[in-house]
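WARN retry 2 of 3 for item q-0093 after timeout on previous attempt; input resubmitted unchanged.
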Amino acid sequence: MTLKEIRKTKGITQEQAARFLGVPIRTYKRYDSEEITKENIKLNSLANSLQKYSKKPRKSHRFPKFDLTIIGAGFVGYNTGLVYSKRFDITFVDKDENKVKDLKKNFKAVTSIKELTKIDYALICLPTDYNEKTKTFNVKAIETAIKDIFRINKYATVIIKSTVAIGYTEALCHKFHKNIFVMPEFLREKHALEDVKRPVRVIVGAKTITDKLLDFLKVQQECLDIPQHAEIMEPYEAEMIKLYSNAYLAMRVTFFNEMDIKIRQLGLDSKKIINSLGKDERIGNIYNDPSFGYSGYCLPKDVKVLQNQTGSELLKAVDSSNKKRKSDIAKEIVKTAKEIKEDPIVGFYGVDTTKQGKDYRISSTYEIYKKVKAHGITCIIFGENKTKSLNAFKEVCDLIVCNSNMPELKDVKYKVFTRSIK
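OK item q-0093 returned
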C-alpha cells in the first residue's frame, strides 16, 4: 500500500493530498509512491490522516457560536482568528490602528480591550520579547491584558497562546484565578494558516479543568480540517513542551551547521554526506539544511530563556555556536567577495523589507549583512532603493548572498553564496 493508492481511491491529486495533510508539495511527492511499512512512523501517520479525507460536508454543529476575543493580531492571532471564525464570533484587539482598519473589513476589531463591554473567551496572542535585564520573556503586555479582561468579566476564560516561561501560567492562576490556561502554538511562520487548520498536536495546560474550557475545545475542534483531540496537562508540562520543542529545533539546525563547517574544512561534499545521514529514519531529512544560523522571532529568545531557567550547558553551547556561525559566514563572504574584485558589491537576496516583512531585522541574512558591511564592503539589499529590478540587481552585484537556493537566481548561480544543499 502507498499514499498514491490511497489518494486514487479518494479521487484527489498530489496537490490536494499535500494541502489536506498540511505538508509542502515537494515533501509529499517524496512519499507518494513509497511503500507503507510499520517501521516508517512518519509514512504511517500520513496514511492514517489521508484515509480520513472526505468530500462529504460535515454534520451540523452541536454548539452555538461563542464569542472569542483575540488579543494580538500578529501571524499567530490573525491566522488563528481566520480558522476559528468558522465556529466563533471573532473580535480582534490590536494597538496598530492601520491593522485594525483592515481587520474591520471582515471582522469586529478594536485598538484597546477597554473599548469592549463583553468578553467570554479571550485568546492572548501577544509577542513576548526577550528582556535582557530579567533574562526572561517580557510579559507586561500579557498581565495588562488579563487585568483589563477581568475588569470587564471576572469569570472570563483566558487562554494564553503567547510563549511564556515554565511556571508562568501557574503563577498567574495564583495571582488572579484558575480560569487562565496555556495553549502553546506550534506554527511555522510561512505556513501558519495551514498549521492552524491541521495541527500536529493540540495541548492545553490547565490547573483546573472547567466546563467552559471543555466547551471551548469541542468547538475549537470543529474549526479544524482534521479534528485533533486536545491533550490536557499541567501548565508546567505544556510550557515545557513548547520551549523544549523550539530548543530541539535550534539544536538540530546548529548540529548540521557545525557538521557543514567540518565538511567544508575537509573539502568534502555537504549534500552527499547530509543526505546519506538522513536516510536513517531516526535522523530523518528535516531541519538538516545548512544555513546562516537559526534566527527569527522565536528560536533565539526561547533558547535563551530555557537556558537561563535550566542552566543547560547544551543550550548555552547551541547559542554560542549559532552566534559564531554568523560571524564565520560573514568573514567567508568578505573573503570570497574580495577574491572576485578589490572593491566588490555584495547583494543580499531574500530579505523582506516590505511592511509585511517588518521583522526582517531579526533574520540571519540581515545580521550577516550588517557584519559584512562593517568590514567596509559595499552592500545592497534587493528591494531597497534602486535595486527593485531583479535583473538590475543581478547585474550590479559581484556576489549575491542568499540563505537558500532560489530558482530565480539559477541564471547567476556562479555569483550566489549560500550554504543550502536543497
